[in-house]
Amino acid sequence: xxxxxxxxxTVIESAPAPVEHRVPLSESRGYVLSRNIVSDxxxxxxxxxxxxxxxVAGEGLRHDxxxxxxxxxxxxxxxxxxxxxPIMTGAPVPEGADRIAIVEExxxxxxxxLLSRPPKKGAHICWQGEDxxxxxxxxxxxxxxxxxxxxxxxMAGRTVLPVFDRPxxxxxxxxxxxxxxxxxxxxxxxxxxxxxxxxxxxxxxxFHVTASAHAADDVPSLKAAFGQMLSCTDVLVTAGGxxxxxxxxxxxxxxxxxxxxxxxxxxxxxxxPFTFGTGEGGRAVFGLPGNPVSVMVSxxxxxxxxxxxxxxxxxxxxxxxxxxxxxxxxxxxxxxxxLRVLAYREGDRWMLHxxxxxxxxxxxxxxxxxxxxxxxADTVSVRSGDGLPFHFMASTAGELSFx
Length: 403
Known about the structure:
Oligomer: single chain
CATH superfamily of the largest domain: MoaB/Mog-like domain
Number of strands: 29
Distance between the termini: 27 Å
Radius of gyration: 30 Å
């Protein structure tokens, strides 16, 4: 068995460099920026009012009113002491005005503005360039684009963005005993939980599955499914058929299709029969075990870091936190154990609650968890109150899961 850290290093180092291309702003959400975005103007581009009110010059309490200034109006008005202009939120502050008196603190009588006290100089004015200066970097390369990032890019004058392409991903679940969710299982049959689990985990993290299928446990079916997927995608993810059973044909079928398998077992639990290989053109194959929790853990710890590196993310290693276990745990030596836990704050400490579980097929045990705590391969027991490193799951912590 390959130690976990060595296996992860092999996976990460096999990721090809991300490929840069350009996409329209309207289609760029979820992509990773390949270059910095700088603003072509100051923001705000002019001194503007932050409130509805009156543009005032100086500290006087009585001001004759001039024309109203509305948002978008070309500025031709000058304000001198003793005068004021009604002004709307977002409208340009006229020359000479140095503060805004808000509507709630003003009285108007016969076209005269009366104030009980003058606003402070600069009150309620957003000065030109106070948010962003022309030439300033507003978005850094390596940023995964969210809706607010697209808004900032538009403010910076961009309609097309430089991004890294996302790999095409295909998923094939396997198993003659595996049936669609809408079928009623007969004895010996199980519903396919892995396919929606894998697709949703990937898409939640920003990766689109372009093709998916299910194949029975026989060589012709597997060869047809894998061959088709390898011909049209960059990353093939399989689930099931990678252990040492008499009908676990996945590794041998992959090899027959030209995939070089770098390892077939990892010293971890759950997920020991995890297989990883590479094929022609930099294609990668992740052979996940069939148990749903093993699928979830292997995807979190191996597949997501690989995809993030290949897609240009600056952070692609799982971020390690440290917490305190709230119950005892014992195991045999030899394998790193991933414990699904609920991580929560208690004062200034992270506490790690370990729910009861019946093994790597017990997907129900993950419902109220948000992290994976790690017990070293050589450790045989930990006690309540002991510290453990842990990773947040990407589905619960998003970008905070990676460093």
